[in-house]
Amino acid sequence: MTHPLEQLRDDALREIDCASDEQTLETARIKFLGKSGSISRWGEEMRTLGKDQKPIVGKLLNEVRNAVTAALESRAASFRSRMESEALGKIDISLPGTTHEIGALHPLTQMWQRSIEIFRRMGFALADGPDIEDEWHCFDALNTPPEHPARNEQDTFYLPDGRLLRTHTSTVQIRTMQAAPPPIRVIAPGAAYRRDELDATHSPQFHQIEGLYVDDNVSVADLKGALEFFMRELFGAETEVQFRPHYFPFTEPSLEIYVKSKALKGGEQWVEVAGSGIVHPGVFEAVNKTRGDNAYDPEKWTGYAFGLGMDRLAMILFDIPDIRLFAQNDLRFLRQFA
Question: Tens of pLDDT along 63-72?
Fold first, then answer.
């Protein structure tokens, strides 16, 4: 005699096989395997069966449930296969394919990578810090007096809470010295912000790599050797490098760096590319005060620092006449560097 579960299985398989689409198939699934479905109700009725019937009916119930589930999955797979075949049948394989352009690095990114790679070969580690800073890290720790023009609201972006957008990545040098004792050798790549009018050579946001090296007996000779090596690696082995006296509050002596190279498309002429100098003892003393020790004793340690403008270096090396081109996303411009 056929058990009701076997009859239920045959009815379910027949209905599944006759399902004409996914919606009809889902209706069948709910009818038999849903929470209130015919097969699911048998699971609740198991509690009313005797001990001798439970193993037999339980085994049969599992077999029926598995058979119905397998049939549902098989039918659903056939519907998916049919839909995919219909979709593919609408594709005209005789049409030409879609051309995808291969992207390339932005010229500023290329300049970042070239510069960082050169400094890494010289033993510099990468350091990072926040773009939103406080006056102490941006000015006070760098020996910049309160009356200095850079601290004026006409030159610096101040926030309502008194913080500001960093005007240089020298702030990362201070944070590095606060976090670790000497010797240190780091570069700090990143964005900086100043209230400059946007024109061909100025932008309120620009990009820098600043470097700091602190160790025993660091001198101008070490600074000169490191930056001459960098400039010749960047602009070519025949590049001439010149150091001219200047003034920066955080270095003493301070030097501006000029280069002359055949690689420059503007011709062989002296071009200013960076600022540098020996770290001012006042910077070490400010760091010691916040550290609460004398780790950067200016009588024991010396160091040099420098700052390179990535936008300016890219404009010089690639002969780009307008800094605004870096941010306009004009493909006619960017494709030149692909």
Answer: 878 888 888 8
Per-residue pLDDT reduced to its tens digit, 138-189 = 999 998 888 877 777 778 999 999 999 999 999 999 999 999 999 999 999 9
Tokens of 101: 């352009």
Residue 128's nearest CA partner among 176, 194, 64, 162 is 176
Query: If we measure between CA atoms, which residue out of 63, 73, 51, 55 comes closest to residue 8?
Result: 63
Residue 268 lies in a domain: yes
Do 153 and 79 belong together in one domain?
Answer: no
For residue 80, what are the domain limits?
Answer: 4-89
Distance, CA of 328 to CA of 203 (rounded, Å):
13
- Assess whether 142 and 291 both reside in one domain: yes
DSSP state of 198: P
Q: What residues have CB less than 8 Å from 10, skipping those under 6 apart?
A: none
Q: Are residues 191 and 227 in the same domain?
A: yes
Nearest CA among 138, 118, 155, 89 for reference residue 235: 118
Helix (H) or strand (E) holding 256: strand 251-260
